[in-house]
Amino acid sequence: MPMLEVRKLSVRYGPLEAVRGIDFAVGEGQIVALIGSNGAGKSTTLKALMGLVPIAGGQVLMQGEDIGAEAAAMRVTRGLALSPEGRRLFGRMTVLDNLLVGAYAVQRRADIAQSLKEVYDLFPRVLERRNQLAGSLSGGEQQMVAIGRALMARPRLLLLDEPSLGIAPKIVAEIAAAINRLNRDVGMSIILVEQNARLALKLAHHAYALEHGEIVRTGRGDELLADPFVRKAYLGV
Predict the structure, then answer these.
(1) pLDDT per residue over 211-226, tens digit each?
(2) What is the domain range of residue 115?
(3) pTM over 0.85
(4) Structural domain ending residue among the three candidates 129, 148, 167
(5) Do 91 and 61 fall within a single domain?
(6) Degrees, nearest 5: CA angle 106-31-86
(7) Contacts for 13 with CB less than 8 Å, ≥ 6 apart
(8) 3-state DSSP assignment of residue 4
């Protein structure tokens, strides 16, 4: 049984059908990438999985249970967490306080302390900046904090929305290494939404290419890297 399964998922914004009956699955310990251009439906799909936008049709199943009608807070307790596009930190709060916001559903103080240790181990810069205001950080450092905040919820499935957007290449490499480490060392399942298709496909076990809310290609990450359609449409080759 997949950790997460999406069946015929549709999402509408008024008359606009942003996601059109898509199907995909995420297995235990998998990195699954969703690639596509602006407006393809990638971020909307993540918001639907998190319960941040209502679904117009289809099902979202987590370990076989339909969670499509559950509130976002309930999905967090099930093990879903989102690092959103644009980071969306509280700029006038410290880095530490931003991280602690992510742990609001965690009951045990020992678990929160352990999660902080793990975030600081993953991103040493976050440890160094923990007492600074989040708004004073560089874009790359803010992205690390945003991912760390999602990890504070102790997720089993991490949703990453455009983690490389607007980030210097050196920091992108650090974030990519962190994603690999979470998957390889911790066994965390990850859905990665990225316009940087080359990066996403190199990281992903399996990938889906979206256009106009529909899946137009699917396969292993390395398969899509070699696919002529994907190379022309998303890699500029």
Answers:
(1) 999 999 999 999 999 9
(2) 83-148
(3) yes
(4) 148
(5) no
(6) 65
(7) none
(8) strand
